[in-house]
Every structure is written in structure tokens, then in C-alpha cells.
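Quick entry between incubations.
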Amino acid sequence: MALLEVEHLDVRFPLRHGEIRAVRDVSFALDRGERLGIVGESGAGKSVLAFSLLRLLSRPGRIARGRVRFEGHELTRLSDRQLRRIRGNRVAMIFQDPLTTLNPVLTIGQQMIESLKAHRRISSRRARSVALQKLRQVQVSSPEQRLAQYPHQLSGGLCQRIVIAIALLLDPDIIIADEPTTALDVTIQAEIIALLKHLCEKHNVGLIVISHDLGVIGRLTQRLLVMYAGRIVEQGPTRAIINDAQHPYTQGLINALPQMALPRQPLAQIPGNMPSLSQVPAGCAFHPRCRYRLTPQGQPRRDCSERVPEAVVSGESQVACHWVRELIATLPIEEETI
Amino acid sequence: MIFFLMRRLLQAVAVMFVISVIGFAIQDGLGDPVRQLLGPTATDAESTALRHSLGLDRPLWMQYLDFAGDAVKLNFGDSYFFHEPALDVIARYLPATLELVAASAMITLLLSVPVGIFCAIRPRSWLSRGLMGLSLIGISVPVFLSAMVLIQLFSIGIQVTLFPTGTGWGQWLNQLLSIQGGMPAYGRGNPVHVWGVWYTNFASWQGLLYLLLPALSLAFVMLPLFVRLIHAEMLEVLESDYVKYARARGLRPSRIYFLHALKNTLLPVVTLGGVQIGTLVAYTLLTETVFQWPGAGLMFLDAIERADMPLIVAYLMVVGLIFVVTNTLVDLLYRGLNPRVTLSGRAA
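Done. Structure below.
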């Protein structure tokens, strides 16, 4: 049994103008020590998915359907008190912007020690020494001094190291990192990615990284989920997806990477925008932007606009596309249509 | 820190100077103290003699210099009416006012923080909707109205005769809806004398009883404002990343609300509160009049009626000083709450 199993998860935000379905029928699993990436455009529901796992959705979001099983515990059914024992303790989180994540009016030391004390019966002195040890693990310089400092006195990169140290404080089984490097300088991004990878490997911690940056995901993860308009459109080994994407959307994403462009050619892009989550098209949500929505003869494919595609195995991935097998079988035609 | 205090001291001197000029300049508009003192039947010779002995026949700027020189020595002259140093008179009346302000500030604080937090944590409950509605009404009700309503309800009482008195249930309903009243609403009662020099309402039940209605009515000036401010700030803070992060770390809700959120919520509240302490002192004019509370506000109104210049100016200076001191204390407190602020002597 996997460490974390998510089945048919649906997250909805009932609003005055109607309901927004931010996450639709998402299923995946995470093994102990596995590193999983979730990639997609802004508004694809990645962060909502991440926050819903620990039931940290902002009002009025709620889990409408589905299961989140962690070590056999059904997280969607736990009481608040039981869930609190898992949050930060067994499953830790890293947020996007380290400067707004840490409380500005409390010292680093206060925030680290309170995290420990929330889950362990531990003396303040002992908690302090654990905090120092974790700060050294994330290579923070002069850790004693940091404990007495406030977040605004530190740089973004340093704060994110501290947030990582807080995530590691209680030796969790899983760390969920929501865009952990987006708010940082590019040079610091690389350091943080290397650090996260190293620590997760060393301590056998499972990692779920949310990012819109395929570069980050590619370096950090073993398996990848690609989300579009609240659904998973492709999931499989990271390397396989990046080298040989199956779903037309994933192909578009990868072709849009600057590294993929030929010299002096404009960057490739997927035409159109991702639909707002309140107005997702019927059928395959991607079909209005998909270059395979028409048959080679120019007829619209009716399945694309009428039926939600089931995930099918294609190559090493599971792909939610009606035509992925046919498309691969007829690869020469695809080349012509480019 | 020392630079900050020195800068504050200089500012205080400037503020006091301006207040003294204004206070001094308005004296001619308040009527002739000589006539007030001697009454309409006095002869010209009598009034000229008194005018000369009070120094009121010299040029205005000379009078001001005299006044300023004395004021530096904390001598504001003798009150025309009490025939004793103005500061002594104020020192006699001010404690009653300060007790009133302290009591109502305490009521405001003790009620607004829990109510504001509750309404932010449970925004959908009927109780919090009701409380927020009440606070909106409270902001719009002037202090003299709330004072009179309080007096009517709790001092005079209300006798309901809406239901037929002949029947048992009618009488029962009438009695249920009637309010006994009986709370003291006039003066200070008999304050207890403690530590030799201090008459206080805080040291006895009876004193507290006398204090309650005036303090409540004064608290109604600030209470709704504070409830709304704390509520709005708290709502915003609860949406912040660091509160969400605190939840994600599995902290107890009580710690999240009362440490992580409240400490950030209090920053603007402290700023506003400091300014409002001064405003409360000003509002005591109304409260003390309605309740005949023998404090500095009532004394000030009497002094104005009597055109008692030394007393008026001394009062203005003392209130100005209270403003400056509370604002400085608030800045220091803010520094303690918000580590991002450093106090320096340089312009902010």
C-alpha cells in the first residue's frame, strides 16, 4: 500500500455566482521516499490540490468527493484534533513566499520551538537544540544568532532554508512544497532545489512539489502529474514525460520551453488561454486549444467535445486523451500538421 | 532610543508652545474676568483697581511673556474663582477624570478584543452578525444620547404597563419587562481615601457602582470603533500566509488566534488606541456634564463660564501634555510589538 493515496478527489468552492470546481476527479499515489511533481499553468488547481490534502483550503473551499488516505487514515474524515497531529508532524508543508510564510512578529526561534512543542513533549532547551541541529542541516550560517532574529532581518533564500528546516523538524514522512522556489532569485533557486533533493533522499522523505516550472520539477522529481483545468491529463515517470510527452497539452508545455526553441525562431506556445475554472468546456477541457481536435480530413472529433477522456496507458504514462493511441500510430500525419 | 526620546521632547515643547499661544490668544473672546468677578454692580474705580492688580491693563505680548515665564516654572497663576494656583485646582479635579478614562478604557479593551476576535473567527454566526450590527449603530450614537439612555434604563428604570394588569400573566410580563433602575447616575459618591493622598472609586463596591454608568457611556464612544477595527484587521490577518502556515504546522487554534493573529492585529489597534486616549479625555466634557462627575472636564466647563483664564489655559496645557505623553508611550509600545520598527531620532 502506498504511503499516500488520493482517489477521485473533488474540491469545490461554492460561490454566489455558482460553484467552482477547482479539482476534478484526481487520483494518484505516493510511495514512501518518492518525489512527485505536479505541474500546470496558473489556475490549473495545483495549489488547491496540495492544500486540500491536509484540509487547509481557504473558505469556502471544501472537499466534495473522494478520499485522501495517509497510512490508512482517511484524512477527509478525521476530526480537527486528529488532523492536527498529522499536520506539520507527519506531513509538513513549504509555502511559496518565505517572507510572508513566517510570522513577522515572532522570532525564528519562537516559531521553530512552538512547532516542536505542538507535537512533542519536549523541554524548551531540548527543542532549541533540535532546532539548531536542523538549521545546520539546511546549511544556515550562525544558527544560534538566527533563532533570535525576525524574518524581516533575513533574505528570502535564508528564510526558505529556515522553512525547510521547520518542515524537517519533526522528521515527517511527506513534505508538500507549493512553488518552493518561485519567489526566489534564479541562483538561489538552484541551491534550494539541490538542498531539498538531498535532504529528501537522505532522510527518505516523500516529496510533493507543485510548480509551473518544468525545469524545477525535472531536476527534483521521479514522477510527474500534469494538471489542466482541475484534472490530471498525464501522469508517469518524470523523465519519460519530459522526453516523450503523450498528451497534446504536455507536448505543448514542453515545446514551449525556451530550451526547445530553435535559434532565431520565436518560442512555441499553445494558442489560447486555459479556461477559467468556472467555465471549463464540456468534454476534454483542452479540446478548444488542441491541435488534434480535427481529423486529418478537417472534421471535428466529436468525442473530444462530448466525453471526458478516461486515463489510458500510453508508453510509460497514463494519459487522459481519447486519441492518444491513434495519434501515436499515425505519427507522420502529426508531423505534417505542425 | 535616546535620540527618539529627545526628539519627542522637542516636539512636545513645540506642541505646548502652540497650545499656550492659542489658549492665551482666546482669552479676550471669553468675556471680561473683572466684570465676572465683581458682578454688574461694581464701580469703575473698583474694576480699574482689580484690573491693575491682576495685571490685565498691560499690553497683550507682555502679558504673554509673563505668562510663558511663569508657565515654565509650572505656575499658571491663581484661578480667578478659586483664589489658589490653577495647577492645584486641576490636580484636585484631574484624578476623577483619569479614573473615569481608565475605567472606560479598560471596559473598551476588555470587551472589544474578545468581541472583535469572536466576530472574525465565526463570521457567519448570528451572534457575531448581531454584534457587528450593534457596533455600526454604536458608532453613530453620540455620547450624550447613550448616556441618557443608560440613565433612563439603569438609574430611573422603566415601568412597563403594556399588558393588562388585572390578569396574572399580564402582571408577570409587565414585571419581566420592567427595569428596576437604581444605579447611581449623579456624582462620584464617596470615594475611598487610600494611601493618604488618593481618593479613588476603584477601592470600594460603592465607588465602582458610581463609576459604572459614566464609564460605560464614555466607553461607548470608542467601543464600537475598536470592535470594528479589530474585527477587520483580524479578518485580514486570518487570510494571511503565516496564519495558514501556522495551521499547516499543526498548531492549536488558540495559539494561532491569540498569538499569531492577535499580535499582528494589535499593531494598528495600538496606534489608534493611543490617539483615542486623548480623545477620551476630551469626551469626558460631555460625560461629566451629563453625570455631574466632579472631574476636570466639568471644572473646565465651569471655568469657561466664569472666564477663569488661568484655569482654562492650565487645563489646555495639561490635556496637551497628556496627548503628547500617551502618544510617546504608544510609540514605545508599538516598538515592543512590531520588531520591524526601530525608533530613531531621524525623521520617519
